[in-house]
Design goal:
Structural class: alpha/beta
Low-confidence stretches: none
CATH architecture of the domain at 432-550: Orthogonal Bundle
Shape: globular
Mean pLDDT: 92
Strand content: 5-15%
Radius of gyration: 29 Å
Length: 558
RNA sequence: GCGCCCAUAGCUCAGUUGGAUAGAGCAACGGCCUUCUAAGCCGUAGGUCGUACGUUCGAGUCGUACUGGGCGCGCCA
């Protein structure tokens, strides 16, 4: 349990005690807010509960605070100091011994430190990336991959049973365009030719793909037919080829999936048709102009949407609905879709389709985590992106150029809601300007110290350590930061906000570097040395666990 | 025109679920290495939190309306 939760419980109990003694009339608040004050003079934690209750209690906030504090008398083993301050804050200062005691939590839990059981092992499915197999992954997919992957790691740490899924849109018009584009290249055409397919893909990778096809190369079990006229064979080979490219890029990015779901399987398994039949049976459709319409306006959309075009084909969101019905029927009561904000309009449609099924699916299901666009800066200038012409920064380019760790860290530093400027020059910079190195350096520094300690026969994990010697400001700050890790993971997972972890890491690295600059670890006083080593083992473990959630390495040397 | 997202230091962004005197990094300036890694530390400077009302003990945070930017609004995906 996090320190904050612990304090929340203590305050809850004191409120209940005061109520039973007739000192307060309010029912105990469901959510007692415990915060960490900006100013350390205001204690380690503060609560505003007295101000919250003042009105109902018809007492001055400070008077309410007095009553609450009166109930905390038997907690003197935890609290160093309890103050009433300002308009009615209760400021809580914990005893150093309490903080020092957190260290053994880290040591004993090791790689599991920071994990919680919040998710109670409930199933959650996270769908992310889900790029069409029509080209290489670009920088936007990279952001989605980093966010989705770290979200999974966060939910896993928070005690959820996570399934990672990738949805391949391997059916439909875009794939048809892909096949035509490859065929055109096989026939030696280029985009300037009048017979170049409309909306064809122009990127250079299409030429490579065409050459590979003509050379009768193999991708997995699929061997290219090398027949330019055989569009179906071209389609099969092109999809297999590009899927393999994407898979290899994702692997290089250390992103993996438990399940790959093919859109084409929805058709071959009859799920699209059966879903449409169920929606029709539910009475939320009508025919007009030869098309079948879904009354999405019944579910909050601003206009109705076509499900089946007059020429007979389904519009794109129909298989999406079928796919999500399938997710529901697979037992995923919780589903989170991570995707680019440019597709946000699908949310209303998919949810509307699911509601129209009358299948008992909750209104807000599934959840969505959207990330905004990424722009790329190089040499102080924005790199223009034209996907149609095939000129864009691929994920592979980024990984090759700036490295996996920096790429992931940069994508994860910012909250998904904000547009991201990816500065390639900064990400490549192997200096203190680069935040990822700043954090990794803290880990490497500790490693070096621990290595020296071992060389000198010092092992803080053997025998008793006098942790009470850790009384310097810099030491206590580190202790408190270490102790805050579990609640940081919990809140990042609960709010779907991976960027809190880089923020936490940066704070921790700052404290470590400050400590390092001011105090020597390996010194004359053996007990103090051992205590500091013990602290550093805990800090190192916490840094490593946090970096691991980001999928960023924790180097022993730099 | 409608919907979603964003607006905080010169630049890129945090801001602990509504708290006390708004922070970090970069860029600028000034200090610190014979001792565990200077990929570091310490300091200076930098602000009408887009604007205006509102909600309340209290608003960068919540609401409404504007302004500006991004994305989306198809019988495309």
């Amino acid at each position: 349990m996090s320190v904050r939760s612990k304090l929340r419980n203590i305050i809850q109990i004191s409120l209940e005690g005061a109520r039973q003694s007739g000192l307060l009339v309010s029912e105990a608040f469901q959510s007692v807010v415990i915060e960490i004050p900006a100013d350390p003079l205001h204690g380690d934690f503060a609560t505003n509960i007295a101000m919250q209750l003042a009105k109902v209690e018809r007492k001055a906030p400070r008077a309410v605070a007095e009553i609450i504090i009166g109930q905390l008398a038997d907690q003197s083993d935890i609290f160093e100091k309890i103050d009433i301050a300002g308009p009615g804050f209760i400021n809580l200062t914990l005893k150093p011994a309490f903080w020092q005691g957190r260290l053994s939590d880290v040591i004993s839990e090791g790689a599991n430190y920071g994990n919680s059981k919040t998710g109670a092992n409930h199933k959650v499915q996270v769908e992310f990336v889900s790029a069409n197999p029509t080209g290489p992954l670009h920088i936007g997919h990279g952001r989605g991959a980093a966010i989705g992957d770290t979200l999974c790691r966060l939910l896993d740490a928070a005690g959820w049973d996570v399934t990672r899924e990738f949805y391949y849109n391997d059916a439909g018009q875009q794939i048809a365009n892909l096949a035509l584009s490859v065929q055109a290249r096989c026939l030696g055409l280029d985009p300037t030719d009048t017979s170049w397919p409309q909306d064809g893909y122009q990127g250079g990778y299409i030429i490579e793909l065409a050459n590979s096809y003509l050379a009768a190369e193999s991708v997995g079990e699929i061997t290219a037919a090398a027949e330019p006229q055989n569009l179906e064979e071209i389609r099969k080979y092109a999809v297999a080829y590009l899927r393999q490219e994407q898979d290899s890029d994702l692997k290089a990015f250390d992103v993996g999936f438990d399940n790959y779901f093919l859109e084409s399987s929805l058709y071959s398994d009859g799920l699209v048709d059966s879903t449409v039949q169920r929606i029709i049976a539910s009475g939320h459709t009508y025919e007009e102009g030869g098309a079948l319409w879904l009354k999405t306006t019944d579910f909050g959309d601003d206009k109705d949407r076509v499900m089946r075009k007059s020429e007979g084909g389904y519009t794109y969101f129909v298989p999406d609905v079928a796919y999500h019905l399938n997710k529901w029927e697979r037992g995923f009561v919780r589903v989170i879709n991570e995707q680019g904000a440019d597709h946000h309009s699908t949310i209303t449609r998919v949810r509307a389709g699911l509601q129209a099924l009358d299948a008992g699916i909750p209104k807000g299901w599934p959840e969505y985590l959207l990330h905004q666009m990424v722009t790329v800066m190089r040499g102080g200038e924005e790199v223009k992106i034209s996907k149609r012409a095939g000129s864009y920064v691929t994920l592979r380019d980024l990984i090759d150029e700036v490295g996996r760790d920096a790429t992931r860290y940069f994508f994860l530093m910012r909250k998904p809601d904000s547009q991201l400027v990816f500065d390639i020059d900064l990400a490549k910079d192997q200096s203190s300007d680069n935040p990822v190195y700043y954090v990794q350096y803290a880990h490497a520094r500790i490693s070096r110290i621990l290595e020296s300690a071992t060389e000198n026969g010092l092992d803080p994990l053997l025998g008793a350590v006098h942790i009470a010697l850790l009384a310097e400001t810099e030491e206590l700050d580190l202790l408190k930061k270490v102790a805050a890790f579990p609640e940081t993971v919990e809140s990042a997972a609960a709010n779907l906000e991976p960027h809190r972890i880089p923020s936490y890491l940066h704070d921790m690295a700052t404290l470590l570097h400050s400590f390092y600059a001011k105090h020597r670890v390996l010194g004359e006083d053996k007990n103090l040395t051992l205590a500091r080593l013990y602290l550093l083992v805990a800090v190192k473990q916490t840094l490593k666990n946090a970096l691991s959630i980001l999928g960023v390495s924790a180097p022993e040397k730099m």
